[in-house]
Design goal:
The structure is a homodimer of 150-residue chains. By secondary structure, the first copy, chain A, is mainly alpha-helical. Chain A has a domain at 6-86 and 132-149: Arc Repressor Mutant, subunit A. Chain A has six helices and two strands. In chain A, strands 1-2 form a two-stranded antiparallel sheet. The longest helix of chain A is centred in the last third of the chain and has 21 residues, at 108-128. Chain A is elongated, with a radius of gyration of 20 Å. The model of chain A has no long low-confidence stretch (mean pLDDT 95). At the A-B interface, helix 1, helix 2, helix 5 and helix 6 of A face helix 1, helix 2, helix 5 and helix 6 of B. Chain A binds a DNA duplex (30 and 30 nucleotides) through residues 1, 4-6, 27-29, 37-38, 40-41, 43-44, 46-47, 57-64, 87, 93.
Chain lengths: 150, 150
DNA sequence: TACTTTTGTAATAAAGATTGTTACATGGCA
DNA sequence: TGCCATGTAACAATCTTTATTACAAAAGTA
């Protein structure tokens, strides 16, 4: 199955915070409007991103969300891990009951584990090489291009 | 969410075919016994692996399954793709309704798509570098070690 | 203090995928 | 004609995701 949209939504949230901070109040309601989901989904992700130290969230009038660190210090891997994109941090679901009475059944887990980790590492290293600063820079460039065309 | 156990089960199946071919009849029943799932799960995977040209499946008495090509020519990526490990071949689930009325909402998909593809490519390249011959060699070594210890 | 706004979170439901299981038709060989 | 194994349909159980309502808790303001 696919990796949860929590990940792309979280990137969307962080991009909004930096890109729209001078244009509108940044709360779960307005961001939900941009993402196209229920505000509670956003508030739950606020909780995870806050716990990971990526954002600061305040309650009450004039509350809302701000970044806790520079965009250049937030990698896609940080976001991916913050929102529990996969169960227990493991990308692959290994079948649970291989038969220990079979020579293959009792060894396959051990033989595959290292390789599955290598594959996951390759993916996570690529994620670590990309920062939110890259994403936001591209987004702002797109917006500027739109204005020029208009 | 995690990648379906169809992937690890399929690797288990192919490993059984080569490792146990002289020890027992290789049909959905015996392989299901090694994997620890219902034979119908195995038969459904037979269908996908067959369609991908990795195995040959015969019905009737003395039926069962054999490899369609050398293990060294089957990569983990081949198996991963054969069994539809992720929907539409896309690793990431992108939230479906970003708001086109928002500057971020109407650009985020385009900005992220290339990067998500890069991440997926990094993972798939690693998978392509590993063959079933590697897995089976390790498995046979484990089995030999077990016998020495006994 | 009372009011308003916004987060935090529980509870619930609907939809979708995975996995397990039974049942039976189909194909292929003796 | 039997026998055996695959192919597949049909269903159910479980789990995760996503959506939604409701309300308590916190924080600022009049």
């Amino acid at each position: 199955m696919q990796i949860s949209s929590r990940f792309t939504i979280a990137v969307h949230i962080l991009t909004c915070i930096d890109t729209l901070k001078d244009e509108m109040p940044l709360n779960s309601e307005t961001i939900a409007g941009s993402v196209g989901v229920n505000p509670v989904i956003i508030r739950n992700l606020f909780g995870k991103l806050k716990k990971a130290g990526l954002i600061i969230v305040l309650r009450g009038g004039n509350g809302g969300v701000t970044l806790a660190k520079p965009l250049s210090e937030i990698t896609l891997l940080d976001v991916y891990r913050a929102v529990d994109s996969v169960e227990d941090g493991k990308l692959f679901h290994f079948h649970a009951n291989p038969n220990a009475a079979c020579p293959v059944g009792r060894n396959i887990h051990h033989v595959m584990d290292g390789r599955l980790d290598e594959i996951q590492d390759a993916m996570e290293e690529k994620m670590q090489s990309m920062t939110l600063a890259d994403i936001v820079a591209d987004t702002k460039r797109c917006i500027k291009d739109e204005k020029q065309r208009a």
